[in-house]
Amino acid sequence: MSEAPLRRFEDFEVGEEIDLGHRTVDHDEIVRFAAKWDPQPMHLDEAAGRASLGGGLIASGWHTAALFMRMACDTVLLRSASLGSPGIERLVWKAPLRPGDTLSARMRITDARASASRPDLGFLGCDVVMTNQRGEVVVTMTTTLMMGRGRTA
Amino acid sequence: MKHLEDFHPGDTVDLGAWTFTADEIVDFARDFDPQAFHLDEAAGKASLFGGLAASGWHVASAWMRLWVDHQSREIAEALARGEEPPAAGPSPGFDDMRWTKPVLADDTITYRTTVIGGRASKSRPGWGILDSLNEGFDATGRRVFHFTGHVFMPTRPEG
To answer: Does residue B8 sit within a domain?
Structure first.
């Protein structure tokens, strides 16, 4: 393989802002995700959505979260020494995601700490914000990434 | 019809189980989390997970599916009794989601939800927020996944 070296723990800086790009979401993918994972009427059917608090067909919140993951993979994680994540400290669904919306996502590194027990592992604290094409905040999230650390790998 | 006041701390619901086949793990990962340890058995074996591991979002999504199926059963039972079915609202978010053990191909995870408490909503009259601990356990009973969820629930009308 002749690719650029993977970004490792040491290559991320506290305070760094990472652009995770954009993603437009269509009606069919919203319904397809919901049919499998969150088959509630407001995620499956326009009329049911209009009758709900969402005021129209809206994506499952888990779909929006999964789209963050895909955007992070495509822009950062697949070119990093990502080792997964221990979890999410907090996720807030602030506004619904609707068919035709374009999500933008940004991630800020808030903390970097080496693992005390594993010399080849570090933890990156991240604040994530996803917005729609009107600039409204759709999701905020505080999470931790595990990254390969050191130059030996 | 269930209102916020009908839920009590410690109330537990068994949501059932989900088996994570290799095919489903790879399908989910291709769409949403295409990291090698979620796509390929050998890469998974070489990773911290020790095998082809489900995306954490896949583990969370299976919880959601089982929760919706549980809600659907409650609605059907209420209708059968001639009652107006319960109508939970949306979720404002969650806290403290932890993937404490990897979920590997062919693992079956059993999910459970436990009421923590409830409070009136400051922003939505007639609604409250129900807080719950949601957990997944593997076949040996070890907890592999948990989070604290929040969902809007109607409060009981006065009078």
So the answer is: yes
